[in-house]
Amino acid sequence: MRSLRSLAVLCVTVLLSIHGGWGFYLPGVAPEDFQRGDELKVKVNKLTSIKTQLPYSYYTLPFCRPDKIIDSAENLGEVLRGDRIENSPYSFKMREPQLCNVVCRITLDGKTAKEFKEKIGDEYRVNMILDNLPLVVPVQRLDHDPTPVYQLGFLVGVKGQYMGTKEEKHFIYNHLSFVVKYHKDVQSDSARIVGFEVKPFSVKHEYEGDWNGKNRLRTCDPHAKQLVTNSNSPQEVEDNKEIIFTYDVDFQESPVKWASRWDTYLLMSDDQIHWFSIVNSLMIVLFLSGMVAMIMLRTLYRDISRYNELETQEEAQEETGWKLVHGDVFRPPVNSDLLCVYVGTGVQFLGMILVTMIFAVLGFLSPSNRGSLMTAMLLLWVFMGLFAGYASTRLFKMFKGSEWKRIAFRTALMFPATVFVVFFFLNALIWGQKSSGAVPFGTMFALVVLWFGISVPLVFVGSYVGFKKPAIEDPVKTNKIPRQIPEQAWYMNPIFSILIGGILPFGAVFIELFFILTSIWLNQFYYIFGFLFIVFVILLITCAEITIVLCYFQLCSEDYLWWWRSYLTAGSSALYLFLYATFYFFTKLEITKPVSGMLYFGYMLIASYAFFVLTGSIGFYACFWFTRLIYSSVKID
């Protein structure tokens, strides 16, 4: 009864998170109240571009600097994402509008002009933060919907042409018109910040006399009611050009409460597509469930009844089907050690993703905690090593293995080492581009400490516990001499059936996969974990069911080599994931630099490898349970 109640609570939580439940806010950041006149400090984050995928620190460009640059403390996830949060010269007074504030004046030389032009050409965006809220640019929709679309950060500048010329010029956005939205407390005069927006302009500022830092600007003068409202006279980026950076700030009262301030960033306008994704996935699950039910309730029931009613040995020998291979079906496979390692790693992944999903659905991994999702996944991966060691050694002992330490060592090292080599190579490429996305040596050392200091010992502990448990007994005895496998029909060819098996699990998730790739590579928020959790559960069921169906057909064809095939059948969905990622690269992204392309395919290769390990292990355990169930249900002479 208690388990049913827990299940009901979980279902309600998932549904709440799907249907506008983002007001349910469990961040690690406490709200801050501001009185009129309190100082508001704007911080700057990395420069980002969807064309290069290489983030850079804000001050790699010669923007206006404060007297002393102070780095904010970043967590592990933030560092891995390339976040570099620093202070800025932009400072506001709460609920006190300012007009035409001059930040600084710079004169470009050949080098700095080239740097600005490169970043403008690659469409880099400036990211700022106020009270933990990212800066957004409101963009009106084309369908006349009054609700604007919000883009994270503003462009460094744009490329364009003067009227009547064809020569392309680079123009910088040097005037920022900020809007700070706040929600006022009814009882007190304090207020909380609930929005941070900007409209950037390119303005060639003019002033009288020589520059002394206190000149009145003719192009932006609140006393003469001359404000910046357009970019009709833009600021060009060229050698020896002077640029004056200015800003306005306005304060607007908002009905949005502090707990709901992230809704504008997170709410998806296309949630119907997500519902379509779930309905599509459910159709696949219902189709497979029908097949499994037919096999289990009708075919298997009939087979088991008939096998158990056979009276003589001669009658049994005349029978064909899955019972004939009972003496070989639990024969240890080729490369059984490697299978144990992969299964253990898959269990580690399953535990990590399941716990991460639950925390995300409950709201603990809010985007307000930058880097929290990646930090949580890394730490959970490390601690789930305990289950990886246990699962791999239990299987190893069932295969009559004795050297459990060797299996534990391979489980602890094989997958992480492969990923680490690829990651190190990609990181070297990022270092070569002098990008802030490169993981510093200190962080790299911390990752190695987590791996060898916590994960590896936990894998050994889990392996020790697993090996001390009694070995899993096979429901039937294995013959000493292997049975010859008859010639198989073309559609039961291992390669063909494995490739077919991966289509349906991939089909269950590919629509949601589009949104995940968009959030990663197009710099958008992904926070619809309610949808994702349901799709993940559907993926588990689909992997299990397709493997059981194909495993049954395989055994009926008197082919007992099901161990590896069950793993590869569900795992082949990773091949389709990588192919879809390739399709996404050429159709949705505008990446032109070779280094950026290598980064994309390198990271997607890691993701596909992880998906292979996860889905393969699910398929294996489903088939393992299925074979043990059916062979324990018949009387074997």
From TrEMBL:
Signal peptide span: 1-23
Residue ranges crossing the lipid bilayer per the database entry: 275-297, 339-365, 371-391, 412-432, 444-467, 488-521, 527-555, 567-586, 598-626
Family, similarity comment: Belongs to the nonaspanin (TM9SF) (TC 9.A.2) family.
Major subcellular location class: membrane
Name used for this protein in its record: Transmembrane 9 superfamily member
Membrane topology, record value: Multi-pass membrane protein
GO CC terms, sorted: endosome membrane; Golgi membrane
Alphabetical UniProt keywords: Endosome, Golgi apparatus, Membrane, Signal, Transmembrane, Transmembrane helix
Keyword match RNA-binding: no
Source species, domain of life: Eukaryota
Organism this protein belongs to: Kalanchoe fedtschenkoi (Lavender scallops)
Single GO BP term: protein localization to membrane
Compartments, as annotated in UniProt: Endosome membrane; Golgi apparatus membrane
